[in-house]
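cron nightly-structures :: item 1 of 1
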Amino acid sequence: MKVLSSWLILIVAIPLIGVAGPAPQEEKPTYWSLVAGTGGVPSGHLIVRIPPGRVAPSEWDLKWFVSIYTPKGLRLPLGCIEDGERVGDASQVILKLPSGTYTIEITRPPPSNKPMGVFDFEKGKWIPSDQEAIFVGKVSVPLQENQVQIISITYRNPQAMSKKEGNSTTHLYTWDNFSLVPSGGRAADLPQKDPKPYPLTQGISLEALDRTQLVAGLKIKEGREFAEMALLHLQQPPLEPIFAGLSDKSITLSWPLARVLVNTRDARAVSALAGVLQDRSNEAQGRAPAAWALGELGDARGLEALKAALHDPDIMVRNYSVLALGQLKAPGVVPFLVEATRDTEGYTGGEVFVTLVESPGIYYLTENQSALFAIKPIPSFTVRINAIYALGQVGDPGAVDYLIGFLADEDSQVRLVALQVLGNYDGPKVLEALKSKLIDQQSVRFIAVHLLAKRGDASVLDSLDKLARHDPDALVREAATGAATRIRKRLQRPPRPAPK
C-alpha cells in the first residue's frame, strides 16, 4: 500500500468561497454506491476521512476534494471532505464499490469557482487562473468482498493565520507530512442507512463506464456536474455526441463544458459555440461561456457571432463577447469595441462582479518577481472596462488614440485599465502618454513606472529619478528606482548623482 507525503503552504485572498465541482448537501456524510443495480455483485466499502482524533487550530477551515479512478482510467468526482477545527460527519466520504483495486485522488479545490486571473505586465494581459483542482495526493487500495477499508487524510503541524483588509480576508494555512494512510475498518464505521446511487453508474457497472456514458450523463440533472468534471480530465473527449446534444438542446452549455471544448482545440467547436451564442432561446448562462470559448479558441470564424453578441440583452454575454473580440485580434474590430466602451451598464448581482468591488485593488510584487499583477474577477463589472481592455489586446494601432483618451477619464478604474493595456503598444505617443501618468494617483503612477521600465528611454530618466527620491509612496519610490536601473542597464548609462 502506498503512503504519500508532502508539504504545502496555501495563501488565498478570499472575497468569496466556492467549491470546484459537485459537493452533495442532501446527506452527511457523502455516501455513494457505485455498484450497478441492487443485487449479486461482490462489494465492499471504502471510507476516505479526516481521522476522528485529529486536532487543528481554531481558524482551520479547508476542503479536500475526492475523486476515484475507474478500471478504464476515467476520473470520477465524488465530493468534498470538510476539514475544520472539529471533525464531524462531513469530514468523510463513504463509497460502496465492487470488489477490486481502486485509486483515490485528493485535490484542493480553488478558492473560487468563478473565473479569476492575474494581470501580467510583462505579457500585457490577464492570465486566467487555473480553475482545476490542485493535486495533493493519490493512493491505491485493494477492496475485497464485505471488507471496509479506511483511507485517512493525515498531516502534521497544521497552522492557520488570517488578516482582514476591508471586505476581504487573506488566509494562510501550513502543514507538513501530508499522507494518505490506508487501514482496516469495521461495519460499525458505516452509516445506518442505504447509500445514494452515484448518478453516472445507475444501471451500468463501474467497469463498463466509458466516455459515451459520460456524455449521456450530461443529459440528466443529477449527473451533469459529475459528467462535466469527468470530461475535463479526458485528453480526447467524444465531441460528436456533445455537438449533437448542443444542437438539439438535450445538452446545455456550461462553463466546465465550454472548457472541455476549448481544451480540445478542435476547429469544429467554433460553429457549435457560435450557434449557442446566436440562439437567444438558450439561457444567458449558456451564451456567456460560448462567447468566452470563442475567444479562447481564437478562430476568426466566430467573429460575426461575437459582433452580434455586443447587443445581447444580457450584460454577462456582452462582457465576455468584448473580451473575446480582443483575443481574436481580427481586422476591423476597433470601431465595434469603441462603441462597446459606451456601454456603462453595471452588473448588480452575481458573485463574479460583486467581488471586483469587494476585493483589494492591486497586489504589488517587487522588481525581483517575474510578474506584477492585480487579482481580479474576469470579466470586470462593466462592459466599458472590458471593451477598453480588449482595445489593448486587439493589436490594432488604430486603438492607441482611444486608449490615450481614456487616460484622462475621471474614473480611476478606467485610467488604470487603459494604462495597463496601452503598454502593449509602442511609439512616441505611447511613451508621452505613459510619462503623463507619473503625476496621477498612487496606483496609476505605480503602473506607469513599471510600463516605462519596459518602454522608456533616456528621456524618462529624470522623471524616474525624481520619483525615486521624492514620491510620497514607498512602493512608487522602489518601483521608480528599479525602472531607472533597468533602463540605464539597457542604455548602458551611469545614474546621475543626486543634487546636493
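cron nightly-structures :: done
The two ends are 72 Å apart (CA to CA).
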